[in-house]
Design goal:
The chain has 4 helices and 6 strands. The protein is an alpha+beta fold.
């Protein structure tokens, strides 16, 4: 057993923490902050010939201006199912269908809705932090397992310290991402 096992464990833990942060950043994109953002449709599923499919995979979603989004389905038969999926998703939009495309006017967020969105954003952040802590725990457990197999104790302790440092670093990045998104949502 040598130091390469320690580096392997630290690297694997860091990779998992990175994935948690990337997932959080993707999730945060779906929270609108009062301006048109096509990413809000990434998690809205529409029934596409019996298969639940995200809206952007069955239509082009564009933003002609800061307060309007235009959804142009590639198959005209999809207009009604997309419209229904948006209503069911309950994201605060009222789709307007003219037979060719769906126009969505983005209403300004109310104070109550902004606070509700901030709560959801914080919950996403907590989920990311849990994933980061799980990566730390798994890394430390693996190091302890390697110690039983002959990895020197000082190498294990150094590895644990390095994993803890990465955990703190990623938790700080999560806090920064949340603060940025909260500021974006609360700015009128």
């Amino acid at each position: 057993m040598d130091i390469s096992k320690q580096k392997e464990v630290i690297s694997a833990s860091k990779e998992r923490m990175d994935k948690a942060l990337l997932h959080l950043e993707e999730e945060l994109k779906s929270y609108r902050a009062g301006k048109a953002n096509p990413a809000v449709f990434n998690n809205i599923m529409v029934d596409y010939y019996g298969t639940p499919t995200p809206v952007p995979q069955v239509a082009s979603v564009t933003t002609p201006d800061a307060k309007t989004m235009l959804i142009q389905p590639w198959d005209k038969k999809m207009i009604a199912p997309i419209e229904k999926a948006i209503m069911v998703a309950n994201i605060g939009f009222t789709p307007q269908n003219n037979g060719e495309h769906i126009r969505i006017n983005v209403p300004p967020l109310t104070e109550e809705r902004r606070k509700e969105l901030v709560k959801k954003v914080k919950a996403e952040g907590e989920t990311a932090k849990i994933s980061i802590r799980n990566a730390r725990r798994d890394g430390v457990e693996l190091l302890k397992k390697y110690q039983k197999d002959g990895l020197p104790e000082d190498v294990v302790k150094d590895g644990e310290a390095a994993i803890q440092k990465e955990t703190d670093n990623y938790n700080k990045k999560v806090d920064e991402a949340l603060a940025h998104k909260e500021k974006e949502i609360m700015t009128v």
